[in-house]
């Protein structure tokens, strides 16, 4: 297969190429406008090609200039197109790609507002008519504690059945904390200035929450087809800004002044307000869920992006924590309901672990007071950057087979309906 990269403005585009793929040619066509986004992408690929350990062998064939999109459509140079960059034109790009008969692997979010969602609905229809696949990069499905949370939630003797919950006490809660300043592939990240503009990057309610809403669907209703028109109801949504000082902005963008499109968000003290934070309360197939995302500027020493997740069942809750007590590494806890954590539960858990060993050898659980801490061998913690390769491998397999699982497209629509509808609710 031949790989094409379209307008790579986000470092996720480069992370797809952090490894080679046996069924993909080394020559890669890149279509983009000239500028710092393209330069940063090419430097990352050069670093992967030039590293001492397991270097990549990508051969970049560059098509740069103001008419890059027209050239991309005319050339149809790839079987698989990767789109990861400025989200303002995301649906336009992926629509052109599927209309031209190319498979698309797109970074999230594929839609950042209601108009974008409506365009996405049409893009999926065009993809179906042309026999190509459109898919988003859901890396968090490959994180080991999330995988194990899903596995245990399907074991009735341990988890029971998923509760319906309530607005005050949701059955599923997922929270994510991210940082503007961090390391990527071992070096300090450089953010494009547009990353701080919700008109281009997307509001916090439609960006990282895409992952969280996806995990709610994927874990709670595995392999089920969801109908967003009937089975999802937004109960409430809110958004709030992160304040970025001029010095912090310069640190991560390497720009000494704010571009004109950010002036609308500059406060009287010179700081920048970017609406990167959001919370959604909603009901999906009768189950109450709550997802929230928060962006701070920089993590505490030794920390990074963190994830918190709870699924509540009739026998136990399954909680992923990643705080100071866990050394800022994700840990899954199994917490039996009060009065149910005795010998019978312990025996059921031991039996469940034996079943899991067929798929995940070495996974165990250690009891601490009234809960069990799931012990995961270090080999399973491959890191967030490696998940991009795992998603790409899966997508290439789908392309070779000619289809996605039957539930993927309707559930992608359900996911983006949830996030864009929540933004509509939050902004009135």
Range of helix content: 25-40%
* CATH H-level homologous superfamily name of the largest domain: Dihydrodipicolinate Reductase, domain 2
Question: What is the name of the CATH class of the largest domain?
Answer: Alpha Beta
CATH topology of the largest domain: Dihydrodipicolinate Reductase, domain 2
* Overall number of domains: 2
H/E topology pattern: EHEHEHEHEHEHHEEEHHEHEEEEEHEEHH
What kind of sheet is the major sheet? Answer: 9 strands, mixed
Question: Measured on Cα atoms, how large is the radius of gyration?
Answer: 22 Å
| Lateral arrangement of strands in the main beta sheet | 10-11-12-7-13-14-15-17-16
Any low-confidence stretches, pLDDT <50, length ≥5? none
The appropriate CATH architecture of the largest domain is 2-Layer Sandwich
Mean pLDDT: 95
Counting DSSP H or I runs of 4 or more residues, the number of helices is 13
Distance between the termini: 45 Å
Q: Find the count of extended strands (DSSP E, 2+ residues).
A: 17
Task: Describe the protein in words.
- The chain is an alpha/beta fold and 428 residues long.
- The protein folds into two domains: 3-136, Rossmann fold (3-Layer(aba) Sandwich); 141-384, 2-Layer Sandwich (Dihydrodipicolinate Reductase, domain 2), CATH 3.30.360.10.
- It contains 13 helices and 17 strands.
- Strands 10-11-12-7-13-14-15-17-16 form a nine-stranded mixed beta sheet.
- Helix 4 packs parallel to helix 5, helix 5 packs antiparallel against helix 13 (408-426) and helix 8 (209-220) packs across helix 13.
């Amino acid at each position: 297969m031949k790989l094409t990269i379209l307008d790579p403005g986000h470092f996720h585009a480069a992370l797809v190429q952090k490894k080679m793929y046996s069924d993909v040619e080394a020559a890669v066509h890149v279509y983009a406008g000239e500028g710092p986004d393209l330069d940063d992408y090419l430097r990352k690929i050069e670093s992967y090609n030039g590293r001492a350990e397991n270097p990549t062998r990508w051969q970049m064939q560059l098509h740069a200039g103001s008419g890059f999109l027209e050239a991309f459509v005319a050339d149809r140079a790839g079987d698989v197109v990767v789109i990861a960059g400025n989200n303002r034109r995301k649906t336009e790009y992926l629509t052109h790609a599927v209309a031209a008969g190319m498979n698309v692997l797109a970074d999230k979010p594929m839609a950042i507002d209601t108009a974008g969602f409506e365009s996405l609905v049409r893009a999926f229809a065009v993809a179906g008519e042309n026999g190509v696949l459109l898919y988003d990069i859901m890396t968090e499905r490959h994180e080991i504690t999330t995988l194990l949370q899903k596995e245990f939630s399907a074991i009735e003797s341990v988890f029971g059945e998923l509760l319906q919950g309530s607005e005050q006490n949701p059955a599923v809660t997922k929270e994510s904390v991210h940082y503007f300043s961090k390391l990527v592939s071992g070096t300090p990240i450089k953010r494009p200035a547009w990353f701080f503009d919700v008109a281009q990057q997307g509001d916090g309610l439609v960006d990282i929450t895409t992952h969280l809403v996806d995990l709610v669907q994927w874990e709670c209703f595995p392999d089920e087809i969801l109908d967003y028109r009937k089975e999802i109801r937004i109960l409430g949504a809110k958004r709030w800004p992160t304040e970025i000082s001029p010095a912090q902005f310069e640190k991560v963008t390497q720009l000494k002044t704010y571009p004109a499109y950010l002036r609308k968000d500059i406060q009287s003290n010179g700081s920048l307000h970017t609406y990167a934070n959001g919370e959604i309360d909603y009901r999906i197939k009768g189950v109450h869920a709550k997802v929230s995302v928060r962006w701070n500027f920089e993590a505490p020493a030794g920390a990074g992006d963190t994830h918190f997740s709870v699924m509540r069942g009739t026998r136990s809750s399954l909680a992923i924590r990643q705080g100071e007590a866990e050394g800022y590494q994700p840990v899954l806890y199994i917490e039996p309901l009060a009065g149910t954590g005795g010998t019978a539960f312990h025996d059921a858990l031991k039996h469940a672990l034996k079943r899991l060993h067929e798929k995940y050898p070495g996974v165990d659980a250690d009891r601490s007071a009234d809960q069990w801490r799931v012990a995961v061998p270090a080999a399973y913690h491959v890191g967030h950057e490696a998940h991009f390769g795992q998603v790409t491998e899966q997508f290439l397999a789908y392309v070779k087979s000619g289809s996605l699982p039957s539930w993927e497209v309707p559930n992608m629509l359900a996911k983006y309906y949830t996030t864009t509808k929540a933004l509509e609710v939050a902004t009135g």
